[in-house]
Structure prediction request, 482 residues.
Amino acid sequence: MTKVGGDIDELPGKLYIVEGCDGSGKSTQLYLLKKWLESQGYFVFFTEWNSSELLKKFTKKAKRKNLLTPTTFSLIHATDFADRYEKLMLPHLRAGHIVLADRYIYTAYARDIARGCDPEWLRNLYKFAAKPSIAFYYKAPLEISLSRILTGRDEIKYHEAGMDLGLSNDPVESFKLFQGIIKKQYDHMAKPEGFTVMDATRSIEEQQAEMRRIVARDLAGYVSPVSNAQEMRRATPEGSI
Amino acid sequence: MTNNLFYGIGLPYHKLNRKTLQGKLIVIEGADCSGRSTQVAMLKEWLEANGHAVLDTGLRRSDLVSEAIEEAKRGNTLGKKTLSLLYATDFADQLENKIVPSMKAGFIVLADRYFFTLMVRDLVRGADKEWLKELFGFALVPDQTFYLSVDPDTLLHRALIKYGHLDYWESGMDVGFSSDMFNSFTKYQTALKDKFDELDMDYGFDKIDGQRSPDEIQEYIRKKVSALLNKKAPAYRLRPD
Prediction:
């Protein structure tokens, strides 16, 4: 693995990430991949978007107050990402571990471009982040992901629905339009960013089997620096990592 | 350069031009204890006495993330990239929610430090200059940027007289110049000064010898500001690269 942006630091770890619209099933797939890797005896570090401890409450507060502009929205998420990246992902990658990320910088690209940020500015902003070993894009027709996410939900949050873009005053309508824009961004990025595009309309089992095949191929020659991952895990209390 | 309203991509989703931004942006940069705040206060007094509406603003005064910054500084738990992005978020928030609206309303905005301070701090900590330049490409080009240059030895005496002790952050203790705060202070302030001089080459500051008396400095600033305000059609020009 190499760092993006001309840096030639070699990172010995592996970074597998999933991207896709809400309701594409990507989180389920990543969870199943994690289970499989662990069953194979690997130590796996998992992280998800928007979960940095320090910043979580501030991000929430800012969103609630609707204080954010496209630039500050973008920067606050970049800060959150940087916190998780510097504190969690990078040390694991440097230590040669496998890192799984549910959403990565491409989520920011898609959303922030949709909000009107400049694509080149965004690419520069996230230059510090390593290029993933494999970036899976779970691609599904919009109607499918929308029906999955909208069924059984009575509320969509303001920013989640992209209400700040002024697409529609109706949250559901706005959400649909926003997801459509995001999907278009992902589709645009797929080739230049080298996504591994996954057909998210197939059965969960089929998708998972393919994901495992692809990861297994990438892991050929990879040796975990912790041969006794299971024992170390048992010796380390939950939450101390 | 045709678009000289911003340093880079600007705020593409706002339709801003020199006509909508009727006010003026005057920046005073310099180290802690360089006499910035005194100068800003004196200038504000004078401008208001002359019938101008003034907004004075500084770094870390935004509602958005100032709390997070304080918390992080207390705990010192953030990575370098994270901290610089957190400060950039704070700066962007002030720019969009305070500076731009005030300028639209015809105010004179006095900025007690601008993103140059953030850049200098990051540069001393090893950040990439090109990355920072593009990151802050959303910033407005000030109508005038004064830089109060004070030698580190003078800053040391001023800091000790003002606070009675040296500050951990102003001594750059996190950088690792020296475990001794007294030594670290001078080394850190010297490094900051060097970086400010470097940015002066890139951005073209109005450099002022901060060792002159406050009244002398103020006289100089007022003369320059008068000229700026009397100018009918100001020539906004960036220094050629």
Chain B touches chain A at residues 8-9, 11-13, 63-65, 67-68, 71-72, 77-82, 85-86, 88-89, 92-93, 96-97, 131, 134-135, 137-138 (CB under 8 Å). Chain B has one domain: 24-224. The radius of gyration of chain B is 18 Å.
